[in-house]
Amino acid sequence: MEKAEKSPSLCPPGCGGSIEDKPGFFGMIAEDLGCAVERDPAATSKFNVFLTYSGLHALWAHHFEHWLWKVGARGLARYLAQITRFFTGVEIHPGAAIGRRVFIDHGMGVVIGETSIVGDDVTLYHGVTLGGTSLEKVKRHPTLESCVVVGAGAKILGDIVVGAHSRIGANAVVIKDVPPQSVVVGVPGQIILRKQQVTGTQTDLDHTILPDAIVSNLKDLMARLEKVEERLDLHTPHTSDVYLDDEDYWEYDHVEDYSI
Length: 260
What we know:
This protein is α/β, with parallel strands linked by helices. The protein has 6 helices and 17 strands.
């Protein structure tokens, strides 16, 4: 678990921050309050955020619990982490290494495993899991590089790396490494490399721009098949009850209703 104990700089060029200019505990709280106001339109003031944002409360408690873990008071660290979980709904193992300006929005149901590493300027929404996939005491949880956004309900599993400036769609299940500047959607996660490069620490919160790789390729395959049938002068009847219309909605041919 050596990899999780030292929290390396996972901040790529253009992402800001370094280990040398790391502030003290209260400086980190000030940074967290500022990033919450920047990333959440519902935040009315830093004072309001300080009092009511359980995701930040969980992170602040974790910094102390992580320090206890590193100095050897592991039983106490685990006990305090359980108390934090009870009051905030966020479960962060005290062994996890978490960087600066991390924002957990809403927070309820977030689980971050023991050997997870979370870089600077990462945003996590409710229901996110950074989970392990091994029974051995090794690095078994994910590493999120800086400026990653993870949508609500997403599961990132195993000792994998999510590259900087990547965006994980809501409810995606990520089980393999994600290159920097990518979007991941679906179950299992389909990795789509971005053409437009993102730099700096600006968080990408446009959750509606999530391409559907499977439907896009399916439509392309159907269009090519139609052209082949046209050239061969074949007129095969449409046999499927469910099909894609021009607006990418699935239509059902049968008149009678169906159960959900």
